[in-house]
């Protein structure tokens, strides 16, 4: 059923995309620079301490999320959670809710630094909750 829904949605989005106005890329007709392809124009921003810390923290957070996305379903299956894909999808829906509604409020009130610290702490809590449970001494 999900493939029928996905196929229908893809077809509708495809038709919709043909109805969008023509918007050529801003650099159309300009020569291609290799620096633009691999992002070398952003390197001077790393001289600013706040940008460098932000990018390093984002990198560490991204590294920490890779095992969650690639091995999360296998892990929840070993815990005996049936339909682990649906279980993890509920987590994604919760993340979308937080990103769309709560994140802008936090950034406005506390700033990006404290919002990122709270986000990284939340990920650490998620990993802590997904850790292996301690062995039960009552079971042989």
How would you describe what is shown here?
The protein has 140 residues and is mainly α. The protein has a domain at 49-135. Helix content is 69%, strand content 0%. The protein has four helices and no strands. The protein has helices at 2-18, 34-37, 49-78, 84-129. It is extended. The two termini are 43 Å apart. The model has no long low-confidence stretch (mean pLDDT 84).
Question: Fraction of residues in helices?
Answer: 55-70%
Strand content: under 5%
Q: If helices are DSSP runs of H or I spanning 4 or more residues, what is the number of helices?
A: 4
**SSE succession:** HHHH
CA radius of gyration? 22 Å
How does the helix and strand content classify structurally? mainly alpha
Largest sheet: none
Mean pLDDT: 84
Query: What's the β-strand tally?
Result: 0
Shape: extended
* First-to-last CA distance: 43 Å
Low-confidence stretches: none
Tell me briefly what this model is.
The protein has 140 residues and is mainly α. It is 69% helix and 0% strand. It is built from 4 helices and no strands.
């Amino acid at each position: 059923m999900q493939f029928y829904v996905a196929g229908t949605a893809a077809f509708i989005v495809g038709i919709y995309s043909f109805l969008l106005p023509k918007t050529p890329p801003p650099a159309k007709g300009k020569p291609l620079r290799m620096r633009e392809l691999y992002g070398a124009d952003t390197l001077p921003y790393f001289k600013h301490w706040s940008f460098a810390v932000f990018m390093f923290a984002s990198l560490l957070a991204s590294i920490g999320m890779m095992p969650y996305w690639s091995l999360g379903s296998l892990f929840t299956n070993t815990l005996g959670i049936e339909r682990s894909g649906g279980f993890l999808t509920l987590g994604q829906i919760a993340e979308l809710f937080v990103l769309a509604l709560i994140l802008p409020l936090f950034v406005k009130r506390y700033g990006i630094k404290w919002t990122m610290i709270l986000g990284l702490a939340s990920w650490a809590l998620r990993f802590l909750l997904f850790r292996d449970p301690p062995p039960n001494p009552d079971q042989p």
